[in-house]
Amino acid sequence: NAAEALAQLGQHAVPQLGPALVKLLGSQGSTCGAYATPSFWAERVIGHLGDHAAALVDDVATLLDDRQWQVRQVAQSTLARLRKHAAMQVGPVMTALADSHLEVRKQALIVLGQLGEHAVPALDAIAQQLKEEGTRASAAAAMEMLGRHIGPSHAAAMAPLVAHNDQVLRERALRCLAKKQEHVAQHVGVIVSALKDGHDGVHGAARNALLALGEHGAASHLDAIASMLQAEDSLVRMRGLDALSELGEIAAPKAHEIALRLKDEEAQVRALAVQTLGLLGQHARPHVGAVATLMRDEMDPRSEARTFLRKYKEDARLHVESIAVAVGHSNPNV
């Protein structure tokens, strides 16, 4: 509350309190994020000053050379809060990527990521940090934030992370690549492979990246996606159906392969197959009869089949007898 009250003073607080706040940032015992320390509150107040904090940027930047690594890290953290106002400090922040302390290097990467287009000169240096285990996560976070500004070489540096054993890194790499269509096209092979990932977040990021290719681009990779429907792992089959459902009518050429999953051994796969067929528009009509047979299936496939048949009710009328038999009625008029 005190920090917010001081921040509300805005430009009136800067002349009187600015030097004192910067001094507190560099006070003995400063630790980034450590609650109730003088530097914690100083950083918070400066962060709340908004545009009025621009006058303090140069003074905060002087702390990037402090002999204590904790102070250097706090200075980086404060610059991260100031974002656009810290744009003129890209050079000193880049220099911090060679700092002797890991935490300072990690914080510098986050600052650069938040500087947007101003950090473009630092992209090569950030890409180098992807090679170091200690800074890889922070560098990947920075690359994701700067995804709209990266070039082919930077995308190539991120692409191997799609297969990394860390789920968060896989997601970051995919979201980064998805920000530029040309990068998705360049690395579509690893992206399609990531559709099989067991983690929902990774699969979703891969699916969204593929959609970034647009209708024509995604259609050219239907064979690779549809091949997932033949996998032994039911989760992979579901991932394939989910990806095809996102493509909608673009996936129409694979309607037959989707319909084959109506006889899948797993109820969830059968249900998802019905749902996916329902998104193919008129291309689903030849498969109304096959869907009708699921009216005696387990709850999920049966529910999806009911929804599907209502949508294609004109075609479903041609299968009234089989539907009646499926639901256990000998009289098709029931």
Report on this structure.
There is one protein chain. This protein has 23 helices and no strands. With 334 residues, it is an all-alpha fold. It is elongated.
How would you describe this structure in keywords?
334 residues, mainly alpha, disordered C terminus
Radius of gyration: 28 Å
Oligomerization state: single chain
- β-strand number: 0
Q: Calculate the mean pLDDT score and round it.
A: 85
For the biggest sheet, the summary is: none
Query: Unreliable stretches, pLDDT < 50, 5 or more residues?
Result: 329-334
Q: Which secondary structure elements does this structure contain, and how are they paired or packed?
A:
Layout lengths: L1 H6 L5 H13 L12 H11 L8 H5 L7 H14 L7 H6 L6 H13 L8 H7 L6 H10 L6 H7 L8 H11 L3 H6 L1 H7 L5 H12 L2 H6 L2 H5 L7 H14 L7 H6 L6 H11 L10 H5 L6 H13 L1 H4 L3 H7 L8
In short:
This protein is mainly α.
